[in-house]
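In response to the reviewer comment on reproducibility (Comment 2.3), we provide here a single inverse folding case reported in full, input and output, so that an independent group could reproduce the run without further information from us. The structure tokens appear first.
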């Protein structure tokens, strides 16, 4: 049914096409081949059945034959065997490759390089075995993060967790998608085969800023990846406190809710705020000082800023006393 001239176009998928983005991981081609096999078998069956239906309806229509329908033969073993056995053979092929690919996609190679992926409303944080952290990378949010940086040519596993609601780790170019579920760990793996930058989506509607929970996977050659790891290892204590606080502000995803440009987001903008007077939801006022910021981080719902929903998570489990001081120094430095 498909014009022969179209076939080479339809079968050449590696660069990405109408159906799929590029194939940038080792499992991508087998996923696509199975998809296309099922797709073309279904297309063939669909066209054959619809055509036969139309032809029979026209050819044996009542006005043409001019009489009431004859009783149809109710049994033909030959036909029944043909239409059972042939489709079953196709099903077995689909099952066999589906099962084989499923096992390959779900079995994490023992030598995989494990990165912890932490999802929360509404950003991603990536923790490497070397203690290095990377985050976000969403151009739109302008958070300055680089996203998930991975080496090319060796298996990488992601251990997914969520600290609030369901999120889903989705990299279309790798054909990888796995939920990040609060209260349990999930894992997925891939082996990137082409250097480049690929979009990383949250594929589970997770609240008002779900569409902004957009990051990227940066695939680097082994040497570039090792160089990147080295360049990321910073000792916060060696930085000026405000600079250390700035890094923590980005790493902890404060940028997802707080802008530093005066425009309120989910939470109030934090530039030029230190030392000013804040009006709270109950009408009382409070001065934004060190103790107030500390309380905002450890017990955010103790005082709610007027006109904002109490949606800030507590950072009591994430931040050490030193880190809280760095963050305070950073917020103070925004007044200068
Ligand atoms: Cu999400």
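Designed residues, in position order:
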């Amino acid at each position: 049914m498909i014009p022969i001239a179209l076939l080479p176009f339809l079968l050449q998928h590696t660069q990405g096409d109408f159906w799929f983005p590029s194939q940038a991981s080792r499992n991508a081609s087998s996923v696509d081949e199975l998809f296309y096999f099922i797709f073309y078998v279904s297309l063939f069956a669909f066209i054959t059945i619809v055509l036969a239906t139309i032809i029979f309806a026209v050819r044996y229509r009542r006005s043409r034959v001019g009489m009431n329908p004859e009783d149809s033969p109710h049994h033909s073993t030959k036909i029944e065997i043909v239409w059972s056995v042939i489709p079953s053979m196709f099903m077995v092929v689909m099952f066999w490759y589906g099962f084989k690919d499923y096992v390959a996609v779900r079995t994490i190679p023992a030598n995989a390089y494990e990165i912890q992926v932490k999802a929360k409303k509404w950003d991603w944080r990536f923790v490497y075995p070397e203690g290095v952290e990377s985050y976000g990378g969403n151009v739109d949010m302008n958070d300055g993060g680089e996203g998930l940086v991975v080496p090319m040519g060796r298996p990488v596993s992601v251990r997914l967790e969520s600290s609030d609601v369901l999120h889903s780790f989705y990299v279309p170019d790798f054909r990888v998608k796995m939920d990040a579920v609060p209260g349990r760990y999930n894992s997925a793996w891939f082996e990137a085969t082409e250097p480049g930058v690929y979009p990383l989506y949250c594929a589970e509607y997770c609240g008002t800023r779900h569409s902004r929970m957009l990051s990227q996977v940066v695939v680097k050659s082994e040497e570039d990846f090792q160089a990147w790891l080295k360049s990321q290892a910073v000792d916060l204590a060696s930085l000026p406190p405000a600079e250390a606080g700035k890094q923590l502000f980005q790493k902890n995803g404060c940028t997802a809710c707080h802008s530093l440009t005066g425009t309120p987001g989910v939470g109030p903008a934090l530039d030029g705020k230190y030392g000013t007077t804040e009006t709270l939801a109950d009408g009382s006022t409070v001065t934004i000082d060190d103790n107030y910021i500390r309380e905002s981080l450890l017990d955010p719902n103790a005082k709610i800023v007027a006109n904002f929903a109490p949606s800030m998570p507590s950072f009591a489990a994430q931040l050490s006393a030193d880190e809280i001081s760095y963050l305070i120094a950073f917020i103070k430095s925004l007044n200068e």
